[in-house]
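call fold(seq) -> tokens
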Amino acid sequence: MLLHDDQHPVERAFMAPVRLAERLGVERLTVTHLCEVDMGLLTAAFAKVPVLHPFPAVKAQRVRRLCEHLTRGYGGDGARVWADPLAWVVLARLRELPGFDRQKAQIFLALLGKRLGVRPQGWQAAAGRYGTEDVFLSVADISDDVSLGRVRQYRKRLVPEASEPAWSTGPAAAGPAQTAG
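ret:
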């Protein structure tokens, strides 16, 4: 989830950790294991059809960098990133994570507040427009099929091709990697 992006349909992105664990032969993924696993094996696990991400080698490297950062800065415990009473501190910590820009950090902060009940002081303001209740702008606003549809409608209006990349429909579609499911 931490590394979800708009280049892969959300339903498949949320299944990626489960599939990655299966492919690596572990019951549960840990930051420590992802730091220690052979990079070739990690990349192969991302690349196996159906791919876990359209650019498996790039995503495998990002996962490794993220896990290394969490190990160095937070003792391998990702929850420590948001274990501060002030949202601005949490937002700054999220922005330091490899692969997180301001928008992704704000969306993740909104996800923490709206879906997981992690609400440091000022979380809605720090999350910007993504912290607003009853909007359908991002993954933070998805709680069921109806809200998923509303977020997709918003994304189509924002950037018509952003809601569902053409290559995500299957191996017959042109794209960077096979996505047969």
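The two ends are 19 Å apart (CA to CA).
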